[in-house]
Design brief:
This is Leucine-rich repeat domain-containing protein. It comes from Novosphingobium tardum. InterPro entries: LRR_dom_sf. The chain is of the alpha/beta class. It has one domain: Ribonuclease Inhibitor (Leucine-rich repeat, LRR (right-handed beta-alpha superhelix), Alpha-Beta Horseshoe), CATH 3.80.10.10. It is built from five helices and ten strands, in the order H-H-H-E-E-H-E-E-E-E-E-E-E-E-H. Helix 4 links the parallel strand 2 (69-75) and strand 3. The termini are far apart.
């Protein structure tokens, strides 16, 4: 048996999958059981559905009140308006690309606990999402129009925050200062990012923080400071065996 076949997932990988909700969504199962060519094919009692917008194939998805988990790709504003009718939705994943320009319809989803938005091309202001009373996980990927994280100062209910870049286009975070002291934050996810001020210590002020999955955005000394201040946090970059060449210089 090969080493790759016997290797166990790392602690970071396990935690990352858990906080990203991947353990609750198997893509193979979804393709086989929950993918629908159009909204008309979604059973009225279906609790899960995955649909990719193609012309008007989405029409009627808002009339599926049993839905609790929806994956939707290529979402424009009319489709997002329709999704806003799913008042009992608990998990929503807007897959690449997100073309809607107004998040207001999502404010109807008062039971929504998990929201991910991939490549929002026309959205710059995400602060309204913080008014969702049940929201605990918010993942935003490749939001090129989002200038900073200042709006997250009010994210007192969020437990998982993901601010990430695209595979070929890292997102530059000016500073992590807005996250300092967020009372409920348990995980910060920042893959494919850069950090302009290269300061990680604002994360040390988050009392519930237990996991950081981030690009190597700061010098080794800065990761060392965070580890010393908060040894209870797991971050793969704390590993003393990693070579210095992986870390940026100041």
């Amino acid at each position: 048996m090969t080493e790759s076949a016997t290797a166990s997932p790392s602690a970071g990988s396990i935690l990352g999958n858990r906080f990203r909700g991947h353990v609750e969504r198997d893509w193979t199962e979804w393709r086989e059981r929950h993918f629908y060519p159009d909204a008309a094919a979604v059973p009225h009692d279906a609790e899960r559905a995955w649909i990719t917008r193609d012309k008007r194939n989405w029409a009627g998805i808002g009339a599926r009140p049993a839905l609790r988990h929806l994956v939707a790709a290529n979402v424009d504003q009319p489709l997002l308006d329709e999704i806003g009718n799913l008042r009992d939705l608990e998990r929503l994943e807007l897959e690449w690309p997100t073309l809607a320009s107004d998040l207001a319809p999502l404010l109807n989803l008062t039971k929504l606990r998990f929201l991910s938005i991939d490549s929002p091309r026309k959205l710059a202001d995400f602060a309204p999402l913080l008014d969702l009373p049940a929201l605990r996980t918010l993942l935003i990927t490749n939001a090129k129009a989002m200038t900073d994280l200042a709006w997250l100062r009010g994210a007192t209910r969020l437990e998982v925050i993901g601010i990430e870049g695209g595979m070929l286009s890292p997102y530059t975070i000016p500073s992590l200062d807005p996250l300092a002291s967020l009372p409920g934050l348990r995980a910060f996810l920042g893959v494919s990012t850069k950090l302009a001020d290269r300061r990680l210590m604002p994360l040390a002020e988050c009392p519930a923080l237990e996991f950081v999955q981030i690009a190597c955005v700061a010098p080794r000394t800065e990761f060392g400071r965070l580890h010393a201040a908060r040894p209870d946090i797991h971050c793969d970059w704390f590993d003393p065996d990693l070579p210095d060449t992986l870390f940026p210089r100041r």
